[in-house]
Amino acid sequence: MLDATDRKIVNALQGGFPVAARPYAEAAERLGLDERDLISRIERMLADRTLTRFGPMYNAERMGGAFCLCAVAVPEERLDEVVDLINAHDEVAHNYLRSHRLNVWFVLGTETPERVDEVIAAIEAETGLEVCALPKEREFFVGLRVDA
Questions:
Q1: What pTM, to 2 d.p., does this model score?
Q2: What is the rounded distance in angstroms from the CA atom of residue 123 to the CA atom of residue 119?
């Protein structure tokens, strides 16, 4: 369970993280916390999977890479297994469940456009399931934030 301080951390740090010699100290000061407390709370939320990722978001395409939205039809009894296999790939930015035949969706962010196909092939080989690749045709900025 998140306490009020955890919620404050999650809500505040989604909008940016200081670029500084001691970014955690600066972020902690802005939140009215001790640097060590901020670091240990983030570590705990990562360890208990409250947070699945803590780090910067890069525009892979501007650096010569690629993004691709993908979907897989995963049998209910294999959900945990398949999601773990998908998440084991560093290129997986995030994933989510849908109540649809294609019930597991994820986004790949790769260093090269060719790497998208390589990661999809690896996931298909590991899971035995077909990955439906949905490459971006047009970009929209929605400014996603999730309030904790």
A1: 0.64
A2: 6
Residue reference for tokens 């916390």: 33
Residue type, 130: E
The matching CATH number, chosen from 3.50.50.60, 1.10.630.10, 3.30.70.3460, 3.30.420.10, for 60-135 is: 3.30.70.3460
Burial class (CB in 10 A: 0-12, 13-18, 19+), 87: middle
How far out from the chain centre does Cα 53 lie?
6
Beta bridge partners of 106: 70, 95
Q: Write the pLDDT tens digit of every residue in 108-137.
A: 989 999 999 999 999 999 999 999 999 888
79 closest CA partner among 110, 46, 111, 104: 104
Phi, psi of 35 (to 5 degrees): -55, -50
Query: Which residue ranges make up each domain of the chain?
Result: 4-47, 60-135
